[in-house]
Amino acid sequence: MVSFEQVREFADRHSGRARIIEHEMAIVDLESGAKVFDVTKAAATYIVESKEGVFAVVASAAGHLKWRQLGRALGLHQIRLASPELVRERTGYDVGTVGPLFLDDVRMFFDKRLLTHDTVYCGTEDAHHTLAIDPRLIVDNNDIAGYFDSGEFLKQPEE
């Protein structure tokens, strides 16, 4: 089970490149996030399953992804969001609080658009705390299976 304390300790060890933001309001979506940080720099961590296995997909949270097209581009067949039970079993996080750290048994696909930012904002396992982190630190601390550009896979508002 991932604990918020693990994330806090990681941020403390990497001060200057990661920090914890505490907020009274729980962050549950982009609207609530916008009251705390720049949501154009929000990074969502999705846990997906496919015929090829279970993976983390870290992408800009600014839009909704076209999962089928993204899966094809990544070489994943029958991609879908993992069930809450599988997310907890494989990551130790609850759905909605998944962050990009301590995903020891899950390979990651990373949105290279996030690398254009000095800092991105992520989940910490605690809805009252947000991780502000250099995206390169996420890459350096995960098993990266590949990169993609989320701009190629965003749904348009009418879709």
Folded structure, characterized:
The protein is an alpha/beta fold and 159 residues long. It is 23% helix and 26% strand. The chain has helices at 4-13, 30-33, 67-74, 84-91, 135-140, and strands at residues 18-22, 43-50, 53-60, 80-81, 107-111, 120-122, 129-133, 144-148. The strands form two sheets. The chain has a five-stranded mixed beta sheet, with helices on one face. The longest helix has 10 residues, at 4-13. The chain is globular.
Overall 3D shape: globular
Report the C-alpha radius of gyration, rounded.
15 Å
Mean pLDDT equals 93
Would you list the SSEs in sequence order as H and E? HEHEEHEHEEEHE
Structural class: alpha/beta
- Share in β-strands: 25-35%
Unreliable spans are none
* Sheet with most strands: 5 strands, mixed
Biggest sheet, strands in spatial order? 4-2-3-5-8
Q: What is the β-strand count? A: 8
Distance between the termini: 37 Å
Based on the structure, what is the oligomeric state of the protein chains?
A: single chain
Instruction: Work out the helicity level.
Output: 10-25%
Question: What is the number of helical segments per DSSP (H or I, 4+ residues)?
Answer: 5
Give the topology.
Elements: H1 4-13, E1 18-22, H2 30-33, E2 43-50, E3 53-60, H3 67-74, E4 80-81, H4 84-91, E5 107-111, E6 120-122, E7 129-133, H5 135-140, E8 144-148
Parallel strand pairs: 3-5, 5-8
Antiparallel strand pairs: 1-7, 2-3, 2-4, 6-7
